[in-house]
Amino acid sequence: MLYRNLLRHQWKEFIRNPSWSGISVAYAIFLVLLALYFLLILALSGAFIGHLLTSQDPAADVVRVVNQHLLSGFLLLFLTRLLFQNTPQVKIGPYLHLPISRPALARFFSFAALFHLHNLLPLAFFIPFWISNLTLDYPAFTSLSWLAGIVAVLGLSNYLVICVRLVLIRRALPVWILGGGVSGLIALDYWQQWGYTSALSSAVFDSLLGPGGPVLALALLAATCLLFGLTCRLLKDHLHDETPSEKGFTTGSQSLLDRLADLGPVGRLMALEIKLAIRNKRPRQIPWSALMFVPLGLINFMLLTRDSSDFTFLHYLWGCLLTSGFVINYGQFMFGWESLYFDGHLARPVQFRHLLWAKLLLLQISCPVLALVCLPFLLIFAPELLVTYSVFLLYNIGFSSACMLFFATMNRKRLYIARSSFFNQEGTSLHHLLVIIPLLAPPAILMLATNFGPLAIAVGGLLCWTLSPVWVRLLAHRLQKCKYRMAAGFRGST
Fold first, then answer.
1. Closest by CA position to 354, among listed 224, 456, 435, 263
2. pTM above 0.90, yes or no
3. Is pLDDT of 405 > 80?
4. Sign of the CA dihedral 82, 88, 89, 93?
5. Fewer CB within 10 A of the terminal residue: the chain, N end or C end?
6. Measured between alpha carbons, how far is 305 from 215 in angstroms, rounded to an integer?
7. Cβ 274 vs Cβ 360: under 8 Å
């Protein structure tokens, strides 16, 4: 009875989600078509990958070739899960005040996590591949063992991600050291072409097709069940971990914020935004992740420019992301960060014009701060990129900041900012992943359509920056129109 009621609650939560009422019919149709498109691409890839491989090498064993790369694919899937998959803590929260067994809640929501898209989408590839390449060429028991092994590995990946993210809440350093060591070994294997990853992948998944395949498949399923039990145990022990934190808030920062608050209503609102960011787990992670992303992006940007003098999509991508990491990761959740007290903005005499000025200035200031981090490396290793780097900096200050603030007015999902900051994607939706397209499109069009693309990008960025008061007035008008829908979404979402 308990599990049936919980299942009914989850279905009602899905169909009554306030985010459904905040999208247009055209956008809903677009999302459905996009989902069907990806499902069709995965199914066709699984069904016809054998024909593609045999057309290049008629003697190739399709299943063996795919088995060589399965481990790399599952590692990539694991990283994707780590970035985008939520822990069941988010779902359990509303039930903690009820007289319901905590272990029962942990078991139900841990099992329900198996039906995540990160498990279902790979099956859209593997099932057609299994039907077209294994059911006809291998005995039924052998082919079923291979499919059971694939399903078991997906389950292992699912529960391993949940366990890692739960452990990260209390003991982050050992997990980071272990993860960094494993990632380093995999990177060395790839760069030095040792082939250990492919050999291990072949050893595991080829064994599923041998005489001991059923035993190995049962062992993998048993390991999944054991990891499921460990996940339930960890989840039950971590139900009350998410408490507000004052970490990172010092007397010096308090003095700086006091001076900022003396500058008027815009300064006070900026100080409030900064306090929110440094006092809570989830937003506090954003600046650090942006700073950690800078070396990786800078290295890729320099290598791409050295390998090719012609600008490609990757040049635009890294050029824009280098100084807009904070704008994209923090700015697109503006208003969502304060969703728990957004009604306070509506009840108090806070002018939207001042609120938007505070947020826009914070985003604009973050771009030159990230640029200063990269500047010494550019001066030493790639001084020829300073002009191009400055062009993208002006573009991000002028256009990207205002554009991201516009997309922030589309937020309708509540964010619990005191929860874990490690790869927490709660409150995200598809439009948060698609906002990168409007940022990359203008520089790409200007670079490809004109012979003076960098100059046009720089002039456009400066023009957008000088028009900041215009953008603030337009955004204030938009916020005035959609404030009640935003407040209803923040109150109704979980």
1. 263
2. no
3. yes
4. positive
5. N
6. 51
7. no
